[in-house]
Amino acid sequence: MTIAKVQHYVPQFLLRNFGHGKKDQLWAYDKTSDRAFLTNAKNVASESRFYDFEVAGEPITLEPFLSNLEGQAKAVIDSILDADSLTGVADEGKAVMAAFLSVQLTRTRTFREEWNAFPRMLREHFSKTGEEVALDSQAEQLLRDSTENESKQQTGRIMMEAPQTYGHHFLSKQWVLAATTRDHPFILSDNPLTRQNLNDLSPRGNLGLQTPGIEIYLPLSPTRALAMWCTTLTELVHRGAISIMSNAAHTGSDAAKDPEGILALSEAIMTGRPVNYSKQNVENFNSLQVGWSERYVFSSINDFHLTKEMLQSDPKLKGGPRSQVA
């Protein structure tokens, strides 16, 4: 089979969902140059030979593996968008999505840059602590920067193992279909699988996939997104709904007072139907895309005011997210 030379770290089918017209045009914003421009899906979130490398002099490519997985995931995502519900996603479809999400977590430029930064972080750690590193030790080897080919090999291995490593974490979450309107659309980035944890408000929080309170998000289209919430959060929602109904029954009221929309949220979670996001919810969702992005943010419309405000408030966001030495 013909192997694509230009290889995407955000699948083209996902980018096309945010495009329009015959050429799947979408708006992009470059954080480094402060520039918005109209482009198409095949030209963004990609690099030449990004998943090609050599092992013992033999050429290897991961592109066929990714193309096959993307084809399976596209079928599941299309079914969700067509039905506007998660109800019809069977166990097999969820397993496909868990594998897809696991690979997406590890396939981006951001992940590779974080991986490449690990030796520098170790050197900074030893510099701060004053610890000696023995020559030819495992630690000494970890301090050495990888070549580009070595980096591709190492991150490629992680990516291939990702479904077994991370898949069960995605399956353990409560999946929710988030909804907005074309007037206040979701945006996408070049590192689209984002996380937040409101239980920990420190920078980037406690964001492990199995951490209590974790929330994981992936935009599917300008108006729909997949939210994966820790079950501790959804249990709180259901308990709140029960409390509201109990209070209504106790007071003899015909209508339960529910200004926060807890009853509707609880019902949507249980039925798989969309949870309608407020303008503030959408802004929070989109702020995660900006904060986790490496360089580019994508949108169905030419409106990047939130991105610009965030970059002005915190210029560090012009680069991709990076771990820091404690």
Write a structural description:
This protein has 326 residues and is of the alpha+beta class. The protein has one domain (6-318). It contains ten helices and 13 strands. The protein has a five-stranded mixed β-sheet with strand order 9-10-11-7-12. A four-stranded antiparallel β-sheet has the order 3-2-13-8, covered by helices on one side. The longest helix has 24 residues, at 148-171.
Largest sheet data:
5 strands, mixed
N-to-C span: 47 Å
Domain count: the total is 1
Taking strands numbered 1, 2, ... along the chain, how are they ordered across the largest sheet? 9-10-11-7-12
What share of the residues does DSSP label as strand, in percent? 15-25%
Which whole number gives the mean pLDDT?
91
> What is the approximate shape?
globular
Oligomer state equals single chain
Query: Helix count, per DSSP?
Result: 10
Number of strands: 13
**Cα radius of gyration in angstroms:** 22 Å
Portion in helices: 40-55%
List the secondary-structure elements in sequence, H or E: EHEEEEEHHHHHEEEEEHHEHEH
Class by SSE composition: alpha+beta
